[in-house]
Amino acid sequence: xxxxxxxxxxxxxxxxxxxxxxxxxxxxxxxxxxxxxxxxxxxxxxxxxxxxxxxxxxxxxxxxxxxxxxxxxxxxxxxxxxxxxxxxxxxxxxxxxxxxxxxxxxxxxxxxxxxxxxxxxxxxxxxxxxxxxxxxxxxxxxxxxxxxxxxxxxxx
Length: 156
Description:
6 strands; six-stranded parallel beta sheet; Rossmann fold; alpha/beta; 5 helices; 15% strand
């Protein structure tokens, strides 16, 4: 059975276990909760699911390094991506997802990234070019992203 960790929970898990960080569109009200689909689709695995979609998100946090809540959230996400054996990244077509673009740049050369960027995403060309340059597999649907994540978590 999969272990699901969300912020602010400590990233205390056996690093020998396969793990997946769910990077991608969250923009409240614009992107469906695709992370829950992943949790359901991976529940039968022995993997650790690192889901940054915080249950108690507070939109009043200041976009500043001096805000301890924001700083802790961003640090959790960066630490989780560094620890993950796989990063599943989804660019929802109705979102801008600027943080996801930033994370694509940070982890494109890591060898653990797989991306889903459907038609309609406003910067699909940029995502395609970065993925092609750094050998990041790219799929068209969340279902295919889930299948690729399962394959990687199984050691494939």
